Amino acid sequence: MKATELIEVLARKLGTTSQIELAEVLGVSVQTLISWRSRQENLSTSQVANALVKARDRAVENAHYHMIKPIAEFFTIKWTRSRQGAKWEIIPSGKDCDQVYDGLRDQLENVCGVYIFYDSRGQALYVGKAKDQSLWKEMNLAYNRDRGELQTIKRVSHRYNKDFLPAYESPLQPTLTHVQLHEMSYYFSAYAVTRDMIEDVEALLIRGFANDLLNKKMEKFAHAKN
């Protein structure tokens, strides 16, 4: 096989549209590609093998780089009503919003991955994944989701709209009270994750925080589901 034939086949199979793009995928310089194209002799089996190994190594390198990308870590939640006023959102939005929030929302709207909610001490409360919709949509759904008995803390039910009475005159007993996730969450982290790895990354995180999380179930690794 001549070098030009190999380059043409690789470009077609890899779906590249330029020498620069093909060189990047193969892990070689553009000058190397030009040098290959200028050769009229047949490539040896060793040369073909070296080209394939370089392509494989670059694919692994790219996979490592793109598999997990932090979007925001321990970002302070500033909850606000949605534009329709029907639910809470983790950060404000709209024309009067700070550009940092606008930029963060744009990032979360365009990627899938995993996320973590933390309490005021920075301890993990809940881990979730966004695989079939954006991180922005899934995180806000989880933020408003009723999680039943898993979210209870001890509180005193104070009597509002009445005259205040000191506790020594009207003692109130702390009792377990159901609270929403948005009442407990102060920070969040969000990570863009390659689609095929989202479930495994979520499962790993849940196992790492197993004794602290409010997650209802222990997610399985992908290979364990088969």
Topology:
Layout: H1 3-14, H2 19-26, H3 30-38, H4 45-67, E1 68-76, E2 80-81, E3 88-89, H5 99-109, E4 113-118, E5 124-130, H6 135-144, E6 152-155, E7 175-178, H7 181-184, E8 187-193, H8 198-208
Antiparallel strand pairs: 1-8, 2-3, 4-5, 4-8, 6-7
Structure, briefly:
The protein has eight helices and eight strands; from the N terminus they run ααααβββαββαββαβα.
What does this structure look like?
With 226 residues, the chain is an alpha+beta fold. Helices cover 39% and strands 18% of the residues. It has 8 helices and 8 strands. It has helices at residues 3-14, 19-26, 30-38, 45-67, 99-109, 135-144, 181-184, 198-208; strands at residues 68-76, 80-81, 88-89, 113-118, 124-130, 152-155, 175-178, 187-193. The protein has a 4-stranded antiparallel beta sheet with strand order 1-8-4-5, with helices on both faces.
CATH homologous superfamily name of the largest domain? Answer: GIY-YIG endonuclease
Q: Find the structural class using helix and strand composition.
A: alpha+beta
CATH class of the largest domain, please? Answer: Alpha Beta
Helix amount: 25-40%
User: Describe the biggest sheet?
Assistant: 4 strands, antiparallel
Mean pLDDT over the residues: 85
| Strand element count | 8
Rg over CA atoms, rounded to whole Å, is 26 Å
> Order of strands across the widest beta sheet?
1-8-4-5
Gross CATH architecture of the largest domain? 3-Layer(aba) Sandwich
**Which geometry do the CA atoms define?**
elongated
Q: CA-to-CA gap between the ends?
A: 42 Å
CATH fold group of the largest domain? GIY-YIG endonuclease
Number of domains: 2
User: What's the order of the H and E elements?
Assistant: HHHHEEEHEEHEEHEH
Percent strand equals 15-25%
SS summary, helix count: 8
